[in-house]
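A favour, since you know our structure tokens better than I do. It will help me judge whether the discrete encoding reads sensibly. The space below this message is yours for that.
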Amino acid sequence: MASHHSPLRRSPTQSRATATLRAIREAALRILKEEGHARLTTNRIAEVAGISIGSLYQYYADKHAIAADICNELLTSELDDIRRLDRQAIALAENSLDATLEFFVAEQVARHRRLYLQLRDFYLEIHWKYDFEAYSRKRYPNKPTTAEWLPSALERHRDTLRVQDFTLAARMVANALEGTIHATLDRNPELILTQEFIDELHVMLVRYLRKMPGEGIQND
């Protein structure tokens, strides 16, 4: 499981340090693009960045810490939309649970797609270790997790649902979604680039939550 602390050993306090971090990240991305992830080592990153290996280790423990920081940087623009996306999901839940789940699935898959398309094989190596939710919670401490906001959304639609423990159901939905995405990245990564993958995930979650026709009807 991913660590919840920052991938940086220390935060930059001067513009020169900020430039060093940028050079390290850009060097890692360049190596991944031009040489492949097998060539991605801390020594090679330092060489391409034009810094000493000692300077690199002042900020990062290893290449996986560099990768986590790159992921954070790639998704930083999403953090500006985090609260809007949360409000949108919660507002959708008031009218349509199906629309809420469809929106939620699409957002989760899009995040992994973005990282996979940028990092390719290296993301396949590190995806289990990277925890975007921990990073976003650090930036926005009051941001509710899926397991925190989804139970109330389910409560609004309780008459149409087969589940009764909404807290447990919310955790099952979050775990099933994240687990399926990660398992697919391990076995069939190109699937996450398709709309069919999103559609099937949506259907899977809806069928878990909703009553089937005739379910719950008592026979005389």
Q: What stands out?
A: The chain has two domains: 15-60, 75-209. DSSP finds eleven helices and no strands in the chain.
